[in-house]
Amino acid sequence: MKQIILITGGARSGKSSHAERLALSLSPNPVYLATSRIWDEEFRQRVLRHQANRGPEWTNIEEEKELSRHTLEGRVVLIDCVTLWCTNYFFDLEADTDKALTAVKAEFDRLTQQDATFIFVTNEIGMGGTSENLIQRKFTDMQGWMNQYIASRANRVILMVSGIPVKVKDEK
């Protein structure tokens, strides 16, 4: 049965850890769909640590943009994270908010046509102050609109606050 779960919150709020525990509670062999690009050596080390922390029960897929090209029928799929996924579209489309948002929404729709359980991890980057940087403001807008798009289609939305999951939406 298809299900969409969105887990959101601030930096270091426990989003990924909670999503991993949830995925493992739903499947003995979930898929970890990582959307990150490697920007520098520090980030490469961060990715390697994350990979090492996951056990052999995980199927790991690295995919920057075209998530729907993977066949995931019947699987529990953790997508970590929407923010980095949106970043890839945003910068590849030269910070054109409308084009990037249209492209990532279309890819989300293609991905979630599959009969699978999708757990999306995202950041609430708009909860802080307004940036003085135009590119950051444009990205914050795009990210917020994408979060709203996913949340409107999600069966469940969980907000992580200091490691504590708070149910925002729960439609069975």
TrEMBL record:
SUPFAM superfamilies: P-loop containing nucleoside triphosphate hydrolases. It is an enzyme of class 2 (transferase). GO terms for molecular function: adenosylcobinamide kinase activity; ATP binding; cobinamide phosphate guanylyltransferase activity; GTP binding. It catalyses: adenosylcob(III)inamide + GTP = adenosylcob(III)inamide phosphate + GDP + H(+); adenosylcob(III)inamide + ATP = adenosylcob(III)inamide phosphate + ADP + H(+); adenosylcob(III)inamide phosphate + GTP + H(+) = adenosylcob(III)inamide-GDP + diphosphate. GTP binds at residues 9-16, 34-36, 62, 80. The active site is at 50 (gmp-histidine intermediate). Signal peptide: none annotated. Keywords: ATP-binding, Cobalamin biosynthesis, GTP-binding, Kinase, Nucleotide-binding, Transferase. InterPro entries: CobU/CobP (IPR003203), P-loop_NTPase (IPR027417). Belongs to the CobU/CobP family. Catalyzes ATP-dependent phosphorylation of adenosylcobinamide and addition of GMP to adenosylcobinamide phosphate. This is Adenosylcobinamide kinase. It comes from Bacteroides fragilis (strain ATCC 25285 / DSM 2151 / CCUG 4856 / JCM 11019 / LMG 10263 / NCTC 9343 / Onslow / VPI 2553 / EN-2). The lineage of its organism: Bacteria, Pseudomonadati, Bacteroidota, Bacteroidia, Bacteroidales. The gene is cobP.
